[in-house]
Design goal:
By secondary structure, the chain is α/β, with parallel strands linked by helices. 45% of the residues lie in helices and 13% in strands. A six-stranded parallel sheet has the order 2-1-3-4-5-6. Helix 8 links the parallel strand 7 and strand 8. It is globular. The protein starts with 7 loop residues before the first strand and ends with a helix.
């Protein structure tokens, strides 16, 4: 059962999406967690949502000059933390390390974007938090090297909409599947394009969907249908891992997964029993051919992977794991100071940087058009 002592404020990022309302989905997720017994409440940390996260450079500049928009967000966050004892920065975004370091609660940073976004997202802030939850199992050690106090692997896990909840172990062993290979993944990434081209050449009839594939996008309302018909799902990453949604939704739909980053894959699923790993695309191609020809072995691995995915990596199981890790460490950190209006103090101490930034911005708004006008006039006289 969830720890009754944890009162968690979940800071979430509300970014734009072409496929769904991100905030609506987040709030529904938090409501499901509450029904499971967790004491959680959401707080949006996006500026002018929906929108992209701030780069660290922009966030740092805003913090140092006392940007009113950023500090207003932080003031509201401080108020929302009253009565809470944990702040979970769910996507690791938009909270400056100097602000986080002063908060009087147990602070938790979570990130699923390493290593591609490490330099701009996790590395500059990790040491400010009491605990770092690292989605990429291959990157945990790097957090400790950056000065993080504690770093623990935390699986990304499943969200309920992406898998068939009526599936059973027996259906996977006995059910009919008519798609040999299936994958939903963009083909445009230069870091994996060559490998995907090799895979596509080896299996020209495979069902591959996403940007860069001849079939284009698969409509979201047909994803589970296609997964339920699939025998094997290759999984390729840009770099280190494994870390992506495919890692969990493939087995949750009874698909036998053949995944790269074999070195760390065994931490997530048992190699040879619940998943099959590879290091090179040539090895992946050979494994796909082998298991297409050995159907009973494929079905047993797929069924075992399904059992592990729905038991250990459901959204409630993953959040329970998260709560257990927090409970383990929350008593090890000394209590912070009383709530001390961190954002308001930063606003007071940055009067001159803020005023100077305003002067420069107003000057640029005047000089910019004048410069362009002068350039056009000069070009006219030279013509």
């Amino acid at each position: 059962m969830p720890s009754p002592s944890l009162r968690i404020l979940v800071a979430y990022n509300y970014h734009a999406s072409a496929t769904h309302d991100v905030e609506k989905a987040e709030l529904a997720y938090l409501e499901r967690l509450r029904r499971s017994g967790f004491d959680v409440e959401g707080f949006c940390v996006s500026l002018n949502p929906p929108g992209p996260r701030l780069s660290f450079a922009e966030m740092d500049a805003r913090w140092r000059r006392g940007d009113r928009e950023l500090l207003s967000l932080y003031e509201r966050l401080e108020r929302a933390l009253e009565g809470k004892n944990v702040l979970l920065n769910e996507a690791g975004v938009n909270l400056h390390p100097d602000f986080v370091a002063g908060l009087p609660v147990f602070t938790v940073f979570q990130c699923f974007d390493d290593p591609e976004s490490s330099d701009d997202l996790s590395r500059p802030v990790a040491s400010a938090y009491d605990l770092c939850l690292v989605g990429n199992v291959a990157e945990v050690e790097n957090y400790l090297n950056w000065g993080a106090l504690r770093a623990v692997w935390m699986p990304l896990g499943l969200r309920s909409a992406i898998f068939d909840t009526t599936l059973t172990y027996e259906k996977i062993l006995d059910g009919r599947r008519d798609i040999d290979l299936f994958m939903m993944s963009d083909r445009l990434s230069p870091m994996r394009r060559a490998r995907m081209d090799q895979l596509a050449a080896a299996f020209p009839d495979a069902h591959f969907y996403g940007r860069g594939w001849p079939r284009g996008y698969l409509p979201a309302d047909r994803e589970v249908e296609f997964l339920s018909r699939t025998k094997i799902g290759p999984n390729l990453h840009n770099s280190t891992g494994p870390i992506n949604y495919r890692l969990y939704y493939l087995p949750a739909n009874g698909v036998m997964q053949i995944c790269d980053n074999k070195r760390h894959l065994g931490t997530v699923f048992e190699l040879g029993k619940e998943v099959v790993g590879f290091e090179t695309v040539e090895e992946c191609i050979d494994l796909c051919r082998y298991y297409l020809a050995h159907d009973e072995e494929r079905r047993i691995i797929a069924a075992n992977g399904w059992k592990r995915a729905v038991s250990d990596y459901s959204e409630s199981a993953v959040f329970r794991r998260l709560a257990d890790v927090i409970s383990l460490h929350i008593g090890e950190s000394p209590a912070g100071p009383p709530v001390s209006n961190i954002a308001a103090r930063q606003l007071e101490t940055t009067l001159w940087p803020r005023a100077w930034y305003k002067v420069k911005s107003e000057a640029a708004s005047i000089l910019g058009p004048l410069k362009r006008l002068a350039q056009r006039m000069l070009a006219h006289f030279r013509a």
